[in-house]
Amino acid sequence: MAEEFRIVLRNMGKIDPMKIDDYINAGGYKALEKARSMSQMEVIEEIKKSGLRGRGGAGFNTGQKWLFAQRMEAKEKYVVCNADEGEPGTYKDRVIMENDPHSILEGMAICGHAIGAGKGFIYCRGEYPSLAETLKNAITQAKEKGVLGDFDIEVRLGAGAYVCGEETALIESLEGHRGEPRYRPPYPPVSGLWEKPTIVNNVETFANIAPIIEKGSAWFGSIGAANFPGTKVLTLTGDVKNKTFIEVPTDTTVRDVIFKFGQGMARDKKFKAVQIGGTSGGFIPESLLDTPIDFDSMRKAGATLGSGAVFVLDEDRDIVDVVTRIAKFFEHESCGKCAPCREGTMRTRRIMEKINSGRGSKEDVALLERLGRVMAGACLCGLGQAAPTPVITTINNFGIDYNAKLQ
Amino acid sequence: MANVTINGIKITVPDDATILQAAEAAGVKVPTLCYHPDQAIKANCRICVCEVEGLALLQAACSTPVWDGMVVKTNSPAVLEARKTILELILAHHPQDCLNCIRNQNCELQALAEAYQIRENPFEQMTRGLPKDKSTPSLVRDPDKCVLCRRCEYTCSQIQTVNALGMENRSYHAMVVPSLGKDLLESPCIMCGQCIHACPVGAIHENEQIDEFLAAVADPEKIVVTQMAPAVRLAIGEEVGLATGAMDMHVLVGALKQIGFDYVLHTNFTADLTIMEEGNELLKRVKEGGKLPMFTSCSPGWINFCETYYPDLLDHLSTCKSPQQMFGALVKTYWAEKMQVDPAKIYSVSIMPCTAKKFEASRPEMNDSGYRDVDLVLTTRELGRLFRMAGLDFSKVAPGSFDSWMGAYTGAAVIFGATGGVMEAALRTVYEVVTGKTLEDVNFTFARGMEGIKEAEIDLNGLKVKVAIAHGMGNARKLMDQVRAGASPYHFIEIMGCPGGCIGGGGQPITKSNVKREERIKAIYAEDAGLPLRKSHENPEVQQLYREFLHEPLGHKSHELLHTHYTPKNKRYL
User: Does the active-site annotation cover B45?
Assistant: First the structure.
């Protein structure tokens, strides 16, 4: 039986998240103290060597990212925690923040030390107002204790736009503007919040920092897949028996996630597909279930790890109908800034509806494929680039379902 | 420097060049839509995407910097597929009524559709189905045609700092709308029309009033009289296939007579008159301790801006009406008297480089002649359409002469059309009035050119006058904030609503960049240099006007006909 391995959820159930003393008694803020006795470069090297890669979906080497910001000469730099967890089916950040808010603060403060930033923001999903209170309580207590030193953290609530999970749209929103992505380069570590060097990392990424500093990069690097070490918090939804969240090493296979941790298919139906990584993730058929969940293996299989949402469908599910609903989601959440996403998500939804209602043709499927290629290659941000993934992966892996609905 | 290969062409460009700039240097045109040379990069239309070796995603040429060794393909199959598909997507959401469109044959989207052979669009045709916004007398917004390039938004908020246009909604419901979703009239719009130049398509344009002109010409009872602003001649050639500045003034007069004007007079006449009134007003304020700095008041977009954003500073504005409105007030009084015609029959048409002039003419206070002073304002673009409709061949149009009493002008009036021109014209006259000496060199070159804010200190026989010039509302705002803070060192400030002054006005031929503005500025100073009279007070017809009618600058008649007052615009939400 595969087992959970808890790094970011290390304190869950063991401490009272509203009490800083609990966190400190569990060894909290020791890593920050240690980091502050190290030079900026030593901290960054340690994080880099650990192989930690961003847990928000893009999988970029965290230490490398910090290095870009550290190298910049600027009077002000910022550390931003992306807690705008808007990916449908994903609630891992909520679990982390609910149970161990100080682990985020500690990770951010270590980052602040490493890059030379004195100010941090937590951009919290608008639908998580209670979490904002938890975080604010933690910040107040940390300030009272003085553990953060002169590193200041502020909580800001989003207003419900999915696109604000995209780091540059998040920055625009933090600045008080319309939540729209910026073109890149320049990347945020060079020019981010108020055009200052800015590190935007996901909640889960920050929660990994203190343990790495405390236990060392070698320890972390030995866990899970070599090229994407550590653990991943996954949230299981859909037609699995055990709809839950788990934290597992990154070399765990999709099959184990569904059939061991998820305890298999609900109502003992046959497995049909699983979508991993959130709404923009690819749909995987049975034949790919032995793929490990790490970023690179998933990508090789034509899928994504993304946010770590695991959405399981059984044999009774109408996959074309599911994808039609997903297309509607992207149409709704496109910010409207770039032409291929603004128009493309709307056209994708319309064509999907046409096919789903039995009025579609082979040409429509081909048009979806063309739209998919163009959007994936030409859209301004990750939202538009990833929006066609569910469409394209289901056409590729479940083409038979589409054919059955064509005229 | 970076060595870049574009479609196999090797080229060396500066390190901070973009792919777009590198391609241009290599002689490769990458198509654009949201890109504008005078604006920040937006990278939102994605038409300019290119393939870069080593990168999985296509890169927007406008926003992506080059690196040494970069290999770019601007026309690969993947690029062409993307570009064509994006164009089809935009076009499928854009009305297919090019033939009826005001921008037909002058539309960036139409040109792209032609270049990429968009024939049968696989996407079903849809439009937003929104009504046109005709709330202002100056502009018409046609939101159905908007392609969301956001160039107008940039111009309005960043260059003009008017903030009348912004984004509303998201996804394909996203729209550029006047502030708070209200109509333009309720927004802080100053009607400068700079958004028209920014727009690549026909989503915003002047309120076209050609039919009203044709109806007046067709009415035998009406005496149709025109005045024409100095910036019109320079640019009108662009509308009929001539180079900037190439239209001969007398040929233009001949053409105006051919399209139906009974009398052709010139706004330049009242530009000279403005200098007489405004120059004396300035001297009066300086001598008598009046409100300083004094601002010029010729630009109706600027007046709207001041009334909207700086209502507390309205008493700094010169009380002089603009040349257009001075002309309007005089043509139905002085000129009617001289010509012995019934002013009720006069239909006064002004041809302006300006959209805000349409609004200005409709102001309720602009009827001091006892009638509406200016009946109709046509823009340079509308005049261009009238000429094309009349089928005029400008190589054969017989030259004509301005009609009397309000047709003479000096070079000082001509330069009103460029930023700094009113200042220079005023200084030419004020110098001679104050010093009693002849000004040998009439060229105040500090006042010329596209620099945002220009300033100087002028010594008038010991009287030191500090002056400043701003064009475009973003520049004006800087000077205004200084005044508001009580820190303005100036006595006299010239402000023009549009970048470059009237030559870049919202009614001018579609102006794609500041390069064109500079070309027009050059042409205007060339015209000034070639004229025998270059000081407003030397205008013989203006001298005659004072002798026979007004008697003296700032006198009783002047006050009645040539001066006005301003009203704060109460936009409560600002």
Answer: no
